[in-house]
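Provenance

Sequences were taken from public entries as deposited. Structures were produced by running a predictor on each sequence independently, with no templates supplied. The record for Fe2OG dioxygenase domain-containing protein from Dendrobium thyrsiflorum is shown for reference.
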Amino acid sequence: MKNDIMEFFKLPLKEKEAMKQLPGGIQGYGQLFVQSEEQKLDWADMLVLSTHPFASRDIKFWPTNPTTFRDTLDKYSVELRKLTGCLVRLMAKDLGIKNPELLGILLSEHLQSVRINYYPPCKHASKVLGLSPHSDGTGLTVLLQANDVNGLQIKKDDRWFSVKARPGAFIVNIGDLIEIMSNGRYKSIEHRVVINTDKERLSIAAFHSPPFEVALRPFPELIEAEEERYRAITVGDFMKAYMTDRLDGKRLLESLKLKK
Ligand SMILES: O=C(O)CCC(=O)C(=O)O
Ligand SMILES: [Fe+2]
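Predicted structure for Fe2OG dioxygenase domain-containing protein:
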């Protein structure tokens, strides 16, 4: 996967633009969260692809150069779904959720998409951000810092900490949807990407979420003993709100809290 994405981003712009996003769409090569002509853009190119369910795949956006790309992504996404399934089972156990139906919400035909990020170096690195501060609007994200270059930072106690890139290691980020479902026991993590002056950086984020029609709310088993902390919203409505706004920390999730 690493080699295939490196080769893809090395292609001339014209070739990459064959996979260009279409107006109003999310999948494809380009940028996301662009709301205005005046907005300062993040210092990155990205390729966004839906990988699961099969019907959500828009194959015209899947590169054919390198020739192995499609097959590699197919295999990579299947393996990451298995990994996510294991993690979710462990989390459900940790939360004490036994109801198989609830577990099914997390595990059933969930949505999976990947965002492949390419951050070019920048001489004025301190003046740009690779990716603005945000928490992921998903359930669980499995992230690979693909060429082992640092850049990811997480926010803790109002300070930014760098996450060291370790060869072959995945980073698992809790997304906003799991924060809601766990009634805040698991917190989504705010993160951003900073740019290097001399090194390019590549990453692959794989996002996993329940299907659009699922009404997200804290699991009933959890709120028997504690108060409900989040307003219910469907996955589809959450994602729509997330994708049509700019990235801004955990603002959207905060707006769903019942007590501020
Ligand atoms: O490039 C990274 O390390 C982070 C990417 C990320 O946060 C995202 O795609 O949501
Ligand atoms: Fe992210």
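The helical segments are 2-10, 13-16, 69-95, 100-107, 176-181, 220-223, 235-243, 251-255.
The longest strand covers residues 111-119.
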